[in-house]
Design brief:
Nodulin-like domain-containing protein; transmembrane; mainly alpha; membrane; 73% helix; 2% strand
Length: 602
């Protein structure tokens, strides 16, 4: 009877409020936002419509793709906004920008507005894509700061849903609008905005209570593995649907049913949150431990911001102090100012990796449909491996996050070395495209998708570990801002121009626009040999980072998050000035005292 009564007590507004305000619900809400934040990776699905309806050639398409990538990766503004404003402001800005940018593209495609000049279309797609940096910054930074000991897992998990979002978009637009690529742009306009608004007040930075080292890594990370299992189920479901829909003709009603099942799997992640909170309440009702070190939380409004007393750019001290501090960084793992990080050798190496590595894989993904056409693959096969890139992208993101965290915790395997390995593997995919080996594009799409996905969680985790979390919202956006430069050079200048030159030659000197395409291995051979070379160069440069951080990764880089400093326990204050309470003898405490401790813990 007591157990039954306890179960009933869970179905109350108080418990529902506890769930929504919990640290784990922040993860769930961030998953939902991230699942709608990968619209830039389905550019290949509607690029053919842009080409046919607006009369663009390949170079113009690649220029649009560059501005899309520019907007997606240059999130400096969103990072700075996150430093000074609460997360809900960041998410609302992103919702508005996304809706405005992609809606204008949709109106141009459907003829509801006059065909805009190319520069204006570039602005629309850059503006809409830049909205995703606000969503990513708000969700990712909140979760990393809420779970600093598991940042590799957190980043890998959230970024994996970004990888799946392309396949999610494909299923939803077929269910809502049918097979109409222009309507896919409309879905891209309103869906991320809707998800941002849905989660706007639940994604936030919560006060972090350091746990005792005896807590156990496995128990602490168990909910993240439950999230991972559900993401694997979603990826497997999408994989089956993509393959099945290419073999069997689905009716509109069938698409509605399959998309409904997709949403059920996606939103079932809330069950992990309910389970964790139910378990926490049950344990608290049974008894409280004889002694718990609880860090008194700040109000949520102040927890949203870094409580620094010095300016974020250079650490204070005026212009002279700024210049002086800029070249005197702290030890690796401590909180760097923005300028200290930007002028460091470590960040310079990460910039090079971003330009060469991510720029090359972005070029391959954005041109995958045209690569398939040039090599003579049937349209059904092209659509299949373009769609499946989302699945391999997911596998790379999830695998890099969880596996690198496991290797780091168990064997002290440095994350920068894992990034080097990913860059070397991606060279294999580029070479398969360059030489056009028969039937090899399937393998190339798997390698490129996996390696592209794997680079992001590794890059973001390294930045958080090397430069600290104080200015993480700005620094991880600076770290990814270099990739559009590589995408522009490799995609627009190298690939786009070489493709158009070959297509023009094949068509007797007539400019290759609209439906005039290039055919044969030669179309992409030279560009991808160049991409292979610069990616290999990026892998060699990354070894500099491996060498400079070798001693840092040999130690326990998360030690300061596991146990409150002894001095703080002695004088009753924590390392950041928060008061630490010792709660003892809980058996004879009142229910009110239990609830107070419960609020402190979660």
């Amino acid at each position: 009877m007591a157990a039954s009564a306890e179960k009933v007590s869970m179905c109350t507004p108080a418990f529902a409020s506890r769930v929504v305000q919990s640290r784990w619900f922040v993860v769930f809400a961030s998953i939902v936002v991230m699942a709608a934040s990968g619209s830039t990776y389905i550019f290949a699905l509607y690029s053919k419509v842009l080409r046919s309806k607006l009369g663009y050639n390949q170079e113009t398409l690649n220029k649009l793709s560059f501005f899309k990538d520019l907007g997606t990766n240059v999130g400096v503004i969103s990072g700075l906004v996150q430093q000074v404003a609460p997360t809900w402001v960041v998410l609302l800005i992103g919702a508005g920008m996304n809706l405005a940018g992609y809606l204008m593209i949709y109106l141009a495609l459907t003829g509801r507005t006059a065909a805009p000049p190319v520069w204006l279309m570039c602005f629309y797609i850059c503006f809409g894509a830049n909205a995703l940096t606000f969503s990513n910054t708000g969700a990712l930074v909140a979760c990393v700061k809420n779970f600093p000991e598991s940042r590799g897992i957190v980043i890998g998990l959230l970024k994996s849903f970004v990888g799946l979002s392309g396949a999610i978009y494909t299923q939803l637009y077929l269910a809502i609008y049918g097979d109409d690529a222009a309507s896919l742009v409309l879905l891209v306009a309103w869906l991320p905005a809707a998800f941002n608004i849905f989660t706007v007040y639940t994604i936030r930075v919560l006060p972090y209570a350091r746990r005792q080292a005896a807590g156990g890594e496995k128990a602490y990370n168990t909910p993240f593995y439950h999230f991972l299992y559900l993401s694997i189920a979603l990826a497997a479901y999408l994989l089956v649907m993509i393959v099945l829909q290419k073999q069997v003709r689905f009716s509109h009603a069938a698409y509605v049913v399959t998309s409904t099942a997709l949403l059920v799997i996606l939103f079932s992640n809330v069950g992990v949150v309910v389970r964790e909170e139910y378990k926490a309440v049950s344990q608290l009702e049974q008894s409280l431990p004889p002694a718990i070190a609880v860090e008194e939380p700040k109000p949520v409004a102040t927890a949203e911001k870094d409580d620094e007393s010095s300016p974020p750019l250079c650490g204070g001290g005026g212009v002279g102090g700024c210049i002086s501090n800029m070249f005197r960084p702290p030890a690796l793992g401590e909180d760097y100012s923005i300028m200290q990080a930007l002028v460091s050798v470590e960040m310079l190496v990460l910039f090079v990796i971003s330009v060469f590595g991510i720029g090359g894989t972005l070029t391959a993904i954005d041109n995958m449909a045209q690569i398939g056409q040039s090599l003579g693959y049937p349209a059904k096969s092209i659509n299949t491996f373009v769609s499946l890139i989302s699945i391999w992208n997911y596998a790379g993101r999830a695998g890099a996050g969880y596996i690198s965290e496991f290797l780091l915790a168990r064997y002290r395997f440095p994350r920068p070395l894992a990034l080097t390995a990913v860059l070397l593997v991606s060279c294999v995919g580029h070479l398969l495209i360059a030489f056009g080996v028969p039937r090899s594009l399937y393998a190339a799409s798997v390698i490129i998708g996996f390696c592209f996905g794997a680079q992001w969680p590794l890059l973001f985790a390294i930045i958080s570990e090397v430069f600290g979390l104080k200015y993480y919202s700005s620094l991880f956006n600076f770290g990814s801002a270099a990739s559009p430069a590589g995408a522009y050079v490799l995609n627009v200048i190298v690939t786009g121009r070489m493709y158009d030159a070959e297509a023009t030659r094949q068509h007797g000197g007539v400019a290759a626009v609209g439906d005039k395409i290039c055919k044969g291995v030669v179309c992409f051979k030279r560009p991808f040999l160049i991409i292979t070379g610069v990616t290999f160069a990026g892998a060699i440069v990354s070894l500099v980072l491996v060498w400079r951080t070798r001693n840092f990764y040999r130690g326990d880089i998360y030690a300061k998050f596991k146990v409150a400093p002894a001095a703080a326990a002695a004088d009753g204050s924590s390392s950041d000035g928060g008061r630490v309470e010792m709660v003892q003898g809980a058996e004879d405490k009142s229910k009110k005292k239990k609830e107070a401790v419960n609020e402190d813990l979660y």
